[in-house]
Design goal:
With about 350 residues, the chain is of the alpha/beta class. It has two domains: about 60 residues, Vcp-like ATPase, Chain A, domain 2 (Roll), CATH 3.10.330; about 240 residues, Vaccinia Virus protein VP39 (Rossmann fold, 3-Layer(aba) Sandwich), CATH 3.40.50. Helices cover about 30% and strands about 25% of the residues. The strands form four sheets. Strands 9-8-7-10-11-15-12 form a seven-stranded mixed sheet, with helices on both faces. Strands 2-1-6-5 form a four-stranded antiparallel sheet, with no helix packed on it. Helix 3 packs parallel to helix 4 and helix 6 packs parallel to helix 7.
Length: about 350
């Protein structure tokens, strides 16, 4: 390799590092552990606990206690010991760990589904994305990571309590407000056409009870060739949405699937599938916007009679599809916990 080529590579690598360090949330993933930060503790038997670091705090078990001060200021991946010599491996929780343990008011989109949504909907850096049904903000975090600081994510949520929880969780993992994120309260169908110009949105992600009611709104704001992906819990919702998209004519033939994740037990020669798995969490249905005035090509299939009628329009409620109601008290507590997670202090001797 020539001296000039090596120098050029050094410049490229240095520039990449500088850019990465400036990305929102990047600093939160590097450096020593800070006060207010979540740390994942794994003991000698592989048992895992997640704690929030506090000055003077302690993690207690039946096998002694571990002072938080022993962890604060340590680098990620350190091993520390409690008062009786019990060792713990300390690591920052991954996004998948954070999502499954963060304060929540509504059920979260599991990491396996969030990863599928980001990939199959082709959420790219700089994309303009709108989503509805923010819940606790799990999917919003994945979408923001995908679009980056130069992208745009406009999230719509009907309930203010859910919006507060999502905002707290997003700010916790990114270390503050994300420059690409905007969250609005209100009905998606009404608000999105008021706030977004026709054909200006690259991707639409809906996690709601009745996405088929939003066809006109989606068709209005979604650019030709843009992707619309839906996350629904039941077969009846999946079927109703697919049939409505086909009948509308402004979208391609929808595709649907679900993903299941099964871990494996790895110990010596005992290598086998785990007895438990993350099975059905939801269905994903994706379609794309056709150009205006174009008639879509329908697949050749024998038509079947639908079981849906106009009387079904008001039947879609959280209880009807098996979702458990969340009390106002629990929502307020989750919102407080989510907001509290944003209070992370710099480690001693660190500039920020």
């Amino acid at each position: 390799m020539s001296r000039e080529t090596a120098a050029s590579n050094d410049i490229v690598e240095t520039g990449a590092d500088t850019s990465a360090s400036q990305a929102t949330g990047a600093a939160r993933r590097r450096g020593p552990f800070r006060v207010g930060e979540r740390v994942q503790l794994t003991d000698e038997r592989g048992r895992m606990n997640t704690i929030t670091l506090e000055v003077g705090g302690a993690f207690h078990t039946h096998r002694g206690f571990l002072n938080h001060d022993e962890i604060i200021g340590k680098v990620d991946g350190s091993v520390v010991s409690n008062n009786i010599g019990q060792q713990y491996q300390t690591l920052r929780p991954l996004l998948s760990d954070f999502v499954l343990s963060m304060p929540r008011g509504a059920a979260v989109v599991y990491p396996k589904d969030a990863g599928q949504i980001v990939t199959m909907a082709d959420i790219f850096p700089g994309a303009r994305v709108v989503e509805a049904g923010v819940g606790s903000g799990a999917l919003s975090i994945s979408l923001l990571r995908a679009v980056g600081d130069a992208g745009y994510l406009h999230s719509f949520e009907r309930r203010e309590e859910f919006a507060d929880i999502a905002r707290g969780n997003v700010e916790t993992i990114f270390g503050g407000p994300h420059p690409a994120w905007k969250i609005s309260l209100g009905d998606f169908q009404e608000e999105v056409v008021r706030s977004e110009k026709p054909g200006s949105v690259d991707r639409v992600v809906l996690d709601m009870l009745a996405p088929w009611e939003c066809i006109d709104a989606v068709a209005t704001v979604l650019a030709p060739g843009g992707v619309w992906i839906n996350y629904v819990a039941t077969v009846t919702q999946l079927s109703r949405t697919a049939e409505a998209i086909r009948a509308d004519g402004r979208f391609t033939e929808p595709d649907a699937w679900e993903s299941m994740v099964r871990g494996w037990h790895l110990e010596g020669l005992a290598v086998r599938p785990d007895h438990r798995m993350v099975a059905h969490t939801g269905f994903l249905l994706v379609t794309r916007r056709l150009a205006d005035g174009v008639t879509g090509i329908s697949t050749k299939r024998r038509p079947s009679k639908t079981e849906f009628s106009e009387e079904d329009l008001n039947a879609w409620t959280p209880g009807a599809v098996g979702e458990r109601a969340v009390s106002d008290k629990k929502l307020r507590r989750a919102a407080r916990d989510a907001i509290a997670g944003t209070n992370v202090m710099d480690a001693p001797g660190e500039d920020g």
